[in-house]
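Work Package 4 report. The design task specified in the project plan requires that, given a folded chain encoded as structure tokens, an amino acid be chosen for each position. We show below one input record used in the internal validation round.
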């Protein structure tokens, strides 16, 4: 699996990097709107940096991990789904229920089936539109990393 990192503002991005590498995933690139943060992160982990979100999303990565500032989570998730990527987003997945629905529906309409959000133990999905079939598969708990896995079909 090839993974791209979108944003490195959340401290949890470091845990994601370690978990992904431990699982044998290739972390193929990183984008962050903040050039200083992008440079520091990409140099620390020796990951290719991308100056634009679309540049990263147009590569052959399978999955994105979104660890940007909360205000960007929804827009980045929708953009990644539009490019046909699986989406893992740091909590909160969105700032409003409407935006959360948009995240889920973007994955649904763009034919990928996996959307995962790190929920801090909250495994409820409040609202699903347009008949999307959603299953809460369970939780992943690895040290400080805890996530709810949501499958959208």
């Amino acid at each position: 699996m090839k993974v791209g990192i979108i944003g490195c503002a959340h401290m949890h991005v470091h845990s994601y990097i370690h978990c992904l590498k431990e699982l044998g995933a290739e972390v193929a690139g990183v984008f962050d709107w903040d050039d200083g943060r992008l440079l520091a992160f990409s140099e620390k982990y020796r990951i290719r940096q991308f100056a634009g979100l679309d540049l990263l999303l147009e590569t052959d990565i399978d999955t994105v991990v979104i660890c940007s500032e909360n205000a960007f989570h929804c827009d980045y998730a929708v953009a990644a789904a539009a490019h046909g990527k699986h989406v893992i987003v740091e909590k909160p997945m969105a700032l409003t229920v409407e935006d959360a629905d948009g995240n889920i529906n973007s994955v649904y309409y763009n034919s990928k089936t996996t959307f995962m959000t790190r929920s801090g133990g909250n495994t409820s999905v409040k609202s699903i539109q347009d008949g999307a079939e959603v299953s809460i598969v369970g939780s992943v708990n690895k040290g400080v990393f805890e996530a709810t896995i949501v499958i959208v079909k």
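The mean pLDDT is 77. Validation will be extended to a larger panel in the next phase.
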